[in-house]
Each structure stands twice: as structure tokens, then as C-alpha cells.
Amino acid sequence: MNIIRTVRSVAFSSIPNRTLSTTRSLSTPSAQYTAFEVNDKTGIATLTLNRPPVNSLNLELLTEMRNCLKDAETNKCKGLIITSSSNSVFTAGLDLLEMYQPQDERVKSFWTALQSMWMELYGSKIPTAAAINGHAPAGGCLIATACEYRVMLPNFTIGLNETLIGIVAPKWFVSAFLNVVPRRVAEQAITQGKLFTTAEAHHVGLVDDVVNTKEEAIAKCEQFIASFKNVNPYARALTKQQFRIKELQELEQQREKDLQIFLGLIMQPSVQKAMGIYLEGLKKKSKKQ
Ligand SMILES: CCCCC/C=C\C/C=C\CCC/C=C/C(=O)SCCNC(=O)CCNC(=O)[C@H](O)C(C)(C)COP(=O)(O)OP(=O)(O)OC[C@H]1O[C@@H](n2cnc3c(N)ncnc32)[C@H](O)[C@@H]1OP(=O)(O)O
């Protein structure tokens, strides 16, 4: 048994507040794209996305995220914060290279990993919060809206911009978005592929708070998680489940159908063409910088 395994078996509800070290890493030795740490004092886990340059979500990153989310729950962490190691991008959303001219088996595993990660995060029993310290388009917005609380740094963008790429945000992307903004705002924004600035996102309720630094964002997330300190965790989890069970069951029951719809859509020649043009545009812009 290695040290990591020993740490993994610790239940944070049983750790007294006076533990000596501040944080401990729960990352597995094989973790490539994430850092996963638990603050010994608060019992709060922080999952940091770390796949430069833009944290685009590929199969491996999604799989690591899911494992971290499971570990946070198994270890009875008091809550989970998701953030990014980048100074300018929370995550650029799904890795377009996983969907553009994809390999058959890999693209299936990719979508299945996305479904699993989302179900784990959206249905997590522990409080979840996103410290959005950079741009969060599409899949980035999906992760943020799956959390219970969002705080964002100024002058970045967030939203479901799929229609601008010629793809479609699936129903479960939309339903999580609808949990946080009014239906009218959601329909208009998602059909337009609108990316909200931080200020606009705050105005429509897509993010709960705006702060100036990553440290302040983490502190806000910790405050949110601490707001449950007098609440029974079991009662809290069951209550949260009542709000979220419908979307979770719907996706669970339709996973294969959802996969087939995804494959059917992205494999259309016109969609592949649009994605290729979009990727080319990103590359040109990146070279100019
Ligand atoms: C009929 C009913 C149907 C129901 C629906 C069913 C199925 C639906 C089917 C499909 C659904 C798919 C859902 C998709 C969700 C997504 O998340 S798609 C991804 C969307 N993301 C974006 O549009 C963001 C694109 N990126 C950017 O805008 C910028 O990169 C940035 C995030 C603002 C950061 O800007 P900056 O810091 O300036 O970095 P660069 O632009 O210079 O980028 C650096 C390099 O990274 C590459 N890159 C950027 N984003 C991605 C990405 N998402 N995937 C892959 N690669 C990306 C970029 O090309 C640069 O590469 P090089 O350095 O030039 O090689």
C-alpha cells in the first residue's frame, strides 16, 4: 500500500481541525492533467485543471476529473472546488480535436467519459463550487453550471457557444444552464451562441459573485462550502438530489441514445467542415498573438 492509498482512505469528517499540514495531495501518481489537494484544516478538496495551453477537455482529462470527484466523495471531503492552473482560461471546453476527424472507438470513449464526469459532478453529494479564473466557453460553462456555486474573475467570458461552431449543446448542457438563468435568457443566449462577459454573466445570474483574484475566488468558494457547516450532510445530499435527480436519471437511462445522437451529429460532413474551419480560425488567431 503506498502513501497515496493511505491518504485516500481517510474520512475528513474524522480529522480534527488542528492537523499540522495545510494541504495534502490526493492525486494519483498517474495524474497527468489535474492536481487534487485536500486542505487538512477545512476538509475541502481543490481540483485544479492543468492541461496547457487551454485545459481543453480530452478523454484523459475527463477521466481524471471523474476519478477526483469520486475520491472527494469517498474521502468524505467537506466540499469540492474546481479551478484552473492557467491565468486566463478556466477551460476552453471540449477538446475539438477529439471530435474533428475522430477515431471511432476513441470518440465513443470520449463522449462516454464526458457523460460520466458530468453525472458525477452534477450529482455529487458534497457541496461543489467553481472558481472561474479564466474563460469558460461551452464545456467550461457546463462544468461551472454543474456546480452549486460560481465565482468569476473580471474580463473573461462564459457561455454555451456551440451554435457558433456549428454544433448543438445537448439537452443536459441546457438543463444545467437553465438551473441558473431564466428560461428566456437561456434560450436567446444558447441559440445565439452567446459568450457572456463576467459582468454580463453576473447580471443574469450565471455567476454568483465576481472577485479580482484567484485567491479571493477560492476564499469565496470556501465560504460557500462553510455555509453548510451546521447542516446535516446526509439531509443536504438527499435534498440536493431532489433538485437534480430528473436530469441525472434522464441521461443515465439514455446514455447510449445520447452517444448515438452525438456521433450522428458530429460525423455529418457539414459539421466536420464547420469544425475544421473553426479550428483553423483558432490556430490562425493563436499564430498572430
Ligand atoms: C438534434 C439534437 C442534437 C442534440 C445534441 C447532440 C449532440 C451534440 C453534438 C456535439 C456537442 C458538442 C458540445 C461541445 C462542447 C464544447 O465544449 S466545444 C469547444 C468549444 N470551445 C471553444 O469554442 C473555445 C475555443 N477556444 C478559444 O476561444 C480560445 O482558445 C480561448 C479559450 C478564449 C483561449 O484563448 P487564448 O488564450 O488566446 O488561446 P488560443 O486561442 O491561442 O489557443 C491556444 C491553442 O489551443 C487551441 N485550442 C483552443 N481551444 C481549443 C479547444 N476547445 N479544443 C482544442 N484546441 C483548442 C488553439 O487552437 C491553439 O492551438 P495552437 O497553439 O494554435 O496549436
From TrEMBL:
It catalyses: (3Z)-dodecenoyl-CoA = (2E)-dodecenoyl-CoA; (2E)-tetradecenoyl-CoA = (3Z)-tetradecenoyl-CoA; (3Z)-octenoyl-CoA = (2E)-octenoyl-CoA; (3Z)-decenoyl-CoA = (2E)-decenoyl-CoA. One of its GO terms (molecular function) is delta(3)-delta(2)-enoyl-CoA isomerase activity. InterPro entries: ClpP/crotonase-like_dom_sf (IPR029045), Enoyl-CoA_hydra/iso (IPR001753). GO terms for cellular component: mitochondrial matrix. It is found in: Mitochondrion matrix. The keyword Acetylation applies. Keywords: Acetylation, Fatty acid metabolism, Isomerase, Lipid metabolism, Mitochondrion, Transit peptide. One of its GO terms (biological process) is fatty acid beta-oxidation. Its main location: mitochondrion. Pathway: Lipid metabolism; fatty acid beta-oxidation. Gene3D superfamilies: 2-enoyl-CoA Hydratase, Chain A, domain 1 (3.90.226.10), 6.10.250.170. Homotrimer. Key enzyme of fatty acid beta-oxidation. Able to isomerize both 3-cis (3Z) and 3-trans (3E) double bonds into the 2-trans (2E) form in a range of enoyl-CoA species, with a preference for (3Z)-enoyl-CoAs over (3E)-enoyl-CoAs. The catalytic efficiency of this enzyme is not affected by the fatty acyl chain length. PANTHER family: ENOYL-COA DELTA ISOMERASE 1, MITOCHONDRIAL (PTHR11941:SF45), ENOYL-COA HYDRATASE-RELATED (PTHR11941). This is Enoyl-CoA delta isomerase 1, mitochondrial. It comes from Ceratitis capitata.
